[in-house]
Structure formats: C-alpha cells, structure tokens
Specification:
The structure holds two protein chains of two kinds. Chain A has helices spanning 5-21, 72-79, 102-107, 125-132, 141-146, 148-168, 184-197, 214-230, 242-248, 266-270, 273-280, and strands at residues 32-43, 46-57, 61-65, 87-92, 95-96, 110-112, 202-206, 234-238, 251-256, 259-264. Chain A is globular, with a radius of gyration of 20 Å. Chain A is of the alpha/beta class. In chain A, the strands form two sheets. In chain A, strands 6-7-8-3-9-10 form a six-stranded mixed β-sheet, sandwiched between helices. Chain A has a four-stranded antiparallel β-sheet with strand order 2-1-4-5, covered by helices on one side. Chain B has 14 helices and no strands. Helices cover 70% and strands 0% of the residues of chain B. In chain B, helix 2 crosses helix 10. The longest helix of chain B is centred in the N-terminal third of the chain and has 34 residues, at 3-36. The mean pLDDT of chain B is 86. The chains are: A alpha/beta, B mainly alpha. Chain A binds chain B through residues 80, 82, 101-104, 106-107, 111-112, 114, 118-123, 127, 130-132, 134-135, 137, 139, 141, 144-145, 151-152, 154-155, 194, 198, and chain B through 197, 200-203, 205-206, 208-209, 211-213, 215-224, 230, 327.
C-alpha cells in the first residue's frame, strides 16, 4: 500500500484528534434530529435520488460520500429546501416537515456552506458572519429606524457572539477585509463562520475541504471536530477525501447513481463490497 | 475679486445643485440595480407617478375622476379639501409602498431566475403602464406642486456677493435658487440616512447580502420577496423625493419622467453599483455641463447642456467602462 499525501495528513490528524479528545468526556450521540424517509428527487426525466432513507443523530458527524454525480449535493439541497423531493418524507426534530422555503428552513436551525463558496463578496468578513445571525435578530425594520438605540444594543450583543466565532476560527486578522479579496482557504473558513453564527441545530457542509492543500485541510478538520466537540453541533458533510471522512465521521452513508449502497460506521463502510466496487470499479463479465 | 472669477464660482455652485438633482434620480436606479440586478427603466416614471399622487392628494383631487364621470355621467373632480403637505407626503409614501408590494406580487415573483434583459423589458412595460395609469388616475394637465419649500433667488446671497466684487465693477451678485439649496440639503440627508441604514442595520445588511448572492442569502434565512419589496419601496421613496424636487422646480407633467434619461450618463460615470458613484457622477455632470455651457457654449451657439452629459458618458465608456466607482470586471482565463 502506498502512503499517499492524504493518508499522511490523516495520520497527523488522528494524532491531533486524540490530543484534542484527551481529557474531554466522550461525546454523546443522541436520537435522530433528521430523518429522510424514502426520498425520491427527479429533474424532468432524470432521477437524481432514488428512494433513499437515512437519519442524522443528535451530536454526530455524519458523512455523505459517493462518486461524482451520485446525488450527494442534491441530497443536501433537499435537506435545506433548495430542492423539493417528489416522494418521501423529511422529519426534523420529531416533526414531519411540510413544503417549506429555504429561508424558513434556515430559520428552523439548519445552516449550510456551499461547494463553490457562496459568500457575500463585497462585504467584510465581519459583516458576512453577522448575516449568519440574521435569523436570531429580533428587531423589525421599523424599530430599526425609530428605535435606533434598541437596534444598536442588539447589534452589539450579536457582535460579541460573532467576535467569539472569529476568535474560534482564528480569522481576527481579516475581520475588516472584503471576503472577495481573501484566498480560497480563508473564504471557506469565513463561510463556515457564517453558518456557525446561526447557532444551527444541524450544520450542512458541502465539500468543506475541496481544493485545499494539506495544511488547510488539517485546519478545517480541526475546526469541524472542535465545532462538534465544543458546541455539540450535529454536522452532516459531503467530502471526497476518504482519509478525512474515515477519520472524522461517526457514521457514513454512501450514494451511487442516486441510490444508497452503504450506511454505517467507517469500519463497516471500508469493508462493504458494494462500496469498494463503486469506488474502484468492477468488471461486469 | 474679479467678476469673471465670481461668475465662474456661481456657475460651479449652480452646477453642484443641478448635479444633486441628477444624483437623486440616479440613486433610485443604483438601489434597485444593486439589490436585484435589474436596471429599472421605470424609475423616472415612478418619480412622475409619485409627484402626481402627491399633488392629487394634497389638492383633494378625486382619483380616476375622468373615468368615473365618463361612465356614470357625474361631474366629480374634487373632494373639496386641502391636505397639509406633510400628511400628503406620508400618504404618498404609503401609496409607493403598496406599489412596491404590487410590483413584487404581479411582476417580479413570476420572473425569478430570468435573464436580466427579460427583467429590463418588464420594467419598460411597467414604465408605460404607469405612465398611462398615472394619467388615468390624476389627469394629464400640468400641475403645480407646492410643498412649502422656499424658492426663488436668495437676496441675502446676492447682497453679500455683490460686496465681494471690486468697487465700481459691473457685477450684481450671485443668483442661487433657494429651492436648489433645499434640494441639496434634502438629498444629503437622504443619502446619509440610506448609507447608515444599509451599513448598520440588520435589514440593510440583508439588502446588501441579497445584492451579492441570492442562494447564500436564502441559506442564512433571508426572505428574498420581503427584501425585494423593501428595495422597491425605498426606490419609490427616492422617486418621491426626486419627484417633489423636480416637480416643485418645473411643474408636475409628463416630461418629468424624462429625467430618467439624465440619470443614464450619471450612472455611466459613477458605475451602476455604487451609491457614492451616483452622487459624485451627478455632481461631475452638473458642474461639467454648466461650466462647459458658460465657457465654451457661446462659441458653439449655446444649448450644449442638452448633449454634454451624453458625450462625457460616451468618453467614459471608451476609457473606463465600469465607471468611476463600479466594480471592475475581471475575467479569469
């Protein structure tokens, strides 16, 4: 077996993870927060997701993996309401979810990041992360105009929380920089910060480490683990780097051509013949 | 001080005031363009409609009176009351908010995700509709708008400046229209409060967020429809201010809607996406066309104000297409 760069990174990571976990009580994985039941999603004649069921439990890191075009991002878009499945039920925190718009779902406590970074490029890091708290701010527009003082007090209160996130993600030095000017790795970190600012019940990360170098990947892994550990945030993530997935995920669901072909702990997935076939290819003769 | 210097100063001052008026119109365009990527062709007509509504409410005109009279054979024209200017302005503001809601419901909602050119076409349609609707509602005669702002030349300034010229010089003092001064003050307050609102409030931040990225805005819980209504309502408010100022200056009539054309060169100068750009662009064009008319106009037979702004804008298009403050378009290969 060759020792790839990714594996070297994940070795380092394993060490880091142990270091972080040392002395901290073991994490508690609770009841399912999100249950997808027999989800089917079609675009015209194309079926992107075919009858997929899985759950995400409170406090866990749940990975969704699969080859390109397997339906991973579509699944995330279903969860946060960009897409509406034709069939199936979505249960969130013990209640069946009706047809909802993305911004309503965000207000329920589901935050996300995007594969291709969707930040507000003209705004500063600070402002970007402040928008993350949009759902938690109470004063309406008219009171912002007439009760300048109250709106200001609320701004300050939320600003404190945001500064804490900025400290946590170690991005103090770029607080006032418009994010369009930041390098890719930092933009990804700001995007994570914006999602965290909403204090989500469920955090969706779409390829948080795509296009990063080893060092940036390690940082991102550390942040994801810390978020999960310190805030107890439930995380569902899509990732291509197998080493990373196997290291940080509690449970993994594997999709291929819109179907679920595996679901279980990293060890179970590693030994699942169907998954191995899907990734390595298999001769059909 | 020599009379030539004082005259030039007067021209520049008047140019700045005229520029403020251009900026006011351009500001409405920039606001909507930033928030929804739509070039709102109807901005000028919105100013006309707002001014018409204001005059109508203030003088107690019966809306649709011609239509009502034609159908029912009645002879109603006026309710017989006069509203105070402030009350009429607040009511007009309400009408502009209702207008914003209707635009979102009837037009924008059905065009989500369409090409910008389609949305642009929709605003052209909206402009023609409103033009006709405004006529139908309030009649097409030229109306006098008086909201109690002082107008006419400032005698005080005339007296003071007359003293600046050398004794016995052929100089009679500066002429500056008080209405222009008030327009400048109002515009300044408007711009400052809009900037504070967009920079330091939750809703302002949401507006900027939507302008930047629709999907990301949705994912942090911003309701696009609400934001669009707010944007159009603010643009309606700016249109009302522009309509009041221009209407008080030159009467409320159809040609008011053509001030939108004056805003185009301002936008090309300042950039479509920049609020400071709209202001500086307006000032440059205002001062530029007045100075040009004063210095070079007589050699060309005058009336250069009609085309100067467009030629300037054309030059800008050649050398700096994104405008003074617009976002530079960088294409990665």
């Amino acid at each position: 077996m060759t020792h790839t760069v990714a594996e070297a990174a994940s070795d380092d990571l394993e060490y880091a993870v142990k270091e972080i976990q040392h002395g901290i009580p073991p994490r508690v994985i609770g009841e399912p927060v999100m249950e997808m039941k027999h989800i089917t999603l079609r675009f015209g004649g194309v079926t992107a997701i075919k009858d997929i069921s899985f759950d995400i439990r409170e406090g866990e890191i749940r990975a969704i993996i699969g080859p390109n075009g397997a339906g991973k991002s579509s699944m995330l878009n279903v969860i946060n309401g960009f897409y509406h499945p034709q069939e199936g039920e979505i249960w969130f925190r013990g209640k069946k979810r009706g047809p909802m718009k993305p911004h309503e779902i965000a207000r329920q406590g589901i935050a996300r990041t995007f594969q291709n970074i969707a930040l507000f490029k003209g705004m500063t890091t600070l402002d970007n992360i402040m928008t993350g708290r949009m759902t938690l701010m109470k004063t309406g527009m008219l009171s912002q105009l007439w009760w300048w003082g109250r709106a200001q007090a609320e701004e300050i209160e939320h600003r404190e929380k945001v500064e804490r996130i900025i400290d946590f993600l170690e991005i103090q030095h770029i607080r006032k920089t418009p994010v369009g000017r930041l390098p890719y790795g930092l933009q990804k970190r700001v995007e994570l910060g914006r999602a965290l600012a909403a204090e989500p019940k469920l955090l969706l990360l779409d390829e948080p480490m795509a296009g990063m170098n080893v060092e940036e990947k390690e940082d991102m892994c550390r942040f994801i683990l810390d978020v999960n550990d310190e805030f107890g945030t439930t995380i569902a993530l899509i990732e291509h780097d197998m080493g990373v997935v196997m290291d940080i995920a509690d449970r993994v669901v594997v999709l291929d051509y819109g179907k679920k072909i595996g679901d279980g702990t990293p060890d179970e997935i590693r030994n699942n013949q169907e998954v191995i076939d899907a990734y390595l290819g298999v001769s059909h003769d | 001080m020599s009379p030539v210097f004082l005259n030039t100063l007067e021209v520049i001052l008047n140019g700045l005031m005229a520029g403020v008026m251009y900026s006011l119109v351009a500001l409405g365009f920039v606001l909507i363009y930033k928030a929804s990527g739509i070039f709102n062709y109807a901005q000028g007509v919105m100013a006309l409609f707002a001014a018409l509504t204001l005059v109508g409410l203030q003088t107690g005109q019966v809306p649709f009176s011609h239509l009502i009279n034609a159908i029912f054979g009645t002879e109603v024209h006026h309710f017989g009351w006069e509203l105070p200017a402030l009350v009429a302005i607040v009511l007009t503001l309400g009408v502009m908010v209702i207008f914003a809601i209707l635009v979102e419901r009837l037009v924008l909602r059905h065009l989500v995700g369409q090409e910008p050119i389609i949305l642009f076409m929709a605003t052209i349609g909206l402009a023609y509709f409103m033009e006709g609707f405004g006529d139908l509602m309030w009649g097409s005669d030229i109306k006098k708008l008086d909201v109690g702002l002082p107008s006419g030349g400032s005698f005080w300034l005339e007296d003071v400046t007359r003293g600046w010229a050398a004794e016995g010089a052929d100089y009679y003092g500066m002429y500056i229209d008080l209405l222009d001064v008030w327009a400048a003050i109002v515009a300044t307050i408007l711009v400052v409060s809009l900037t504070l609102f967009s920079q330091y409030t939750k809703t302002g931040r949401a507006l900027r967020a939507v302008a930047d990225d629709h999907q990301a805005a949705l994912s942090v819980g911003i309701d696009l429809r609400t934001i669009w209504v707010i944007t159009w309502a603010i643009a309606g408010f700016v249109a009302l201010v522009a309509g009041v100022m221009w209407g008080a200056k030159s009467g409320v009539q159809f040609s008011l809607s053509l001030i939108a054309l004056k805003a185009l060169p301002v936008l090309m100068l300042g950039g479509f996406t920049s609020i400071p750009g709209a202001i500086v662009g307006g000032l440059i064009i205002g001062v530029g066309e007045k100075l040009f008319e004063y210095a070079i106009g007589p050699m060309l037979g005058g009336a250069t104000e009609n085309w100067f702004a467009y030629v300037l804008a054309l030059l800008f298009l050649v050398f700096r297409p994104q405008g003074l403050f617009g976002e530079k378009i960088i294409e990665r290969v």
